[in-house]
């Protein structure tokens, strides 16, 4: 195992996704620790690349997961992450609305409802 690669990924996961990211990794422990390790390492590899800041990366990720339309759990993690790295609620709403043109209204509606749930959870 490349310990430095894993540690870098875990550090970035903690600072960007926080508890939600750790919950995803922990949920894999009993079924596939190898996938958990690979996820952390790949996250670190991508999020530590130069030329795109983490806010832009989260905007791109929210757009992609919204467009896919069937990734609500992962979308919620990244909606939280987008808020954690400085995206405003209005910026995120605009990204989701933008996806209605490219991914269709059902995907955009699903994304907006996921965002509504994230905001409600954060208010608690």
TrEMBL record:
Coiled coil: none
Domain called Carboxymuconolactone decarboxylase-like: residue spans: 33-117
Pfam families, A to Z: CMD
Domain of life: Bacteria
PANTHER family documented for this protein: 4-CARBOXYMUCONOLACTONE DECARBOXYLASE FAMILY PROTEIN, GAMMA-CARBOXYMUCONOLACTONE DECARBOXYLASE
Protein name: Carboxymuconolactone decarboxylase-like domain-containing protein
Organism (species): Vibrio marisflavi CECT 7928
Species classification: Bacteria, Pseudomonadati, Pseudomonadota, Gammaproteobacteria, Vibrionales
